[in-house]
Design goal:
Transcription Regulator spoIIAA; about 550 residues; 6 strands; 25 helices; about 70% helix
Length: about 550
Amino acid sequence: MPGNYDLQKTFFTIKGDILGGIVASIVALPQALAFGVVTGMGANAGLWGAIILCFFAGIFGTKLPMISGPTGPVAIVTATIIAAYGNNITSVIPVFLIAAIFQILISFTNLPSIVKYVPYPVISGFMNGVGIILILMQLNPLFGIKSSTSPYESIKSLVLNFNEINVDTLILGFITLLIVFLIPKRINKIIPSQIIALLLCTFISIKFSMDVERISEISIKFPSMIFPVLTYENLIKVIPFAATLAVICSSESMLTGLVADSLTREKTSPKKLLAAQGIGNVLCSLTGSMPGSAATMRTVAALSSGASTKFSAIISSFCLISVVMFCSKFVEQIPLAVLAGILIKIGYDIIDAKLLKVIRYAPKDDLYVLFLVFFLTVFYNLIFAVGAGITLAALLYAKRVADSTSIGVKTIVDEEISEYEKQLADEFNYLIRVVHINGQFFFGSATQIVSQFEEILGTKYLILNYESDSLLDISAVFALEDIIIRLQSQRIKALLVVKNEKVYKQLKDLNIHSQIGEHNVFYKETDAIEHAKMRVRAQQRKTQ
């Protein structure tokens, strides 16, 4: 019966959202505490930031379950801003407020759509830099030495104060690292290793009365409202910092949105996502809580556990509130060394291992951009690093285009091939389609091509004809992988036509040809079309 089916569907949706919200809160708890500590705002600010942002961004956000809260990149930027204000938390509240207002204003423009055009090496260099910063800044608390506000200061402080190492702290940190790195994946799927480390190491520290620094105090009261006074002079000083924080919060939120879209095969509105994040961060700033963004790891955890609506974000907030209300005494006993170990694992996970596997095959231009962004992120300024990376990538691309244009290659239209393709529509009713990739398949064209695959429903065989002699850059390689995965998820067989042996060798070196199937790569378009026609006819004979 239709009524019973709808009731059953609603039951499974609610069940999935509740489970997803609980799992997301389990992942969020240690991270929120750790990020609060690393910024200097305190664990309390990190925890309430996760509660407030997740709740309000969930209510006002997209229908997909976006689990929000403090994240690695946001924590690093926040820590940098607080250090610039002399560690005066009250003074940075206007920065958080203006940054949140910027997010809301950005949501009314077309800027959210620009994030998908950022070259992959820029994103990778930035994320690798953030991962390294998180790791370096946790070395001091891992050894029981006072934390520093920058990677350079952390290393310097560790060397100068090496004789002050706290053995109890080091033991707890080492146990934490063993747990978060060595727990098998099958156990990690049931209960996150970060929670296991948090519970077990805190219990050990209490049981053996270890002399270690702890969180100390968690407030069970809702944070009191703070209304900052903004003068013209103060506003001028605040805007650069606020713009930096707004860009980082917005970029990470939109990247999380792209990941969620890829997993669910749905399209979320980046404008609505940003507006909701901005509203949530306004309330975080007015309560003195830590700002944040949509968190990829927590969102994926919720989706993987069956969550399908924003109700799971609300559930996640209530789970964290329950921790504050009923487990605050235990949370206060959590050693900072344990949080340091957890953050080191988070930093390690942020590092782009996917790119490192293929880095020796990457074009030099991509490596120039990646390393520039990486070193500027770690040793100078995060937002400047991203801007410099985008500028360099654009200049290098312009140079490539200029170099190829100077050759003076003319486009030749093969009338016989063109007519051959037109017959496919009549004979096979679009079961077979041919897509020509003309010119360089680079980070911009890759994005455009990927967006076209929303319109090929009903197709069984898609022939990708890459006609250029230019090698693929890293963005194009990963975009091609994404195309293949999308087609396979829609039960569409991909065939690839490459007319250059160097391009084919590059695909072979990067293992792309095995993903698409070596027998599905051709040098001639006519061979690919005949192969597809033969397969379609064979399938039609089976169904008759």
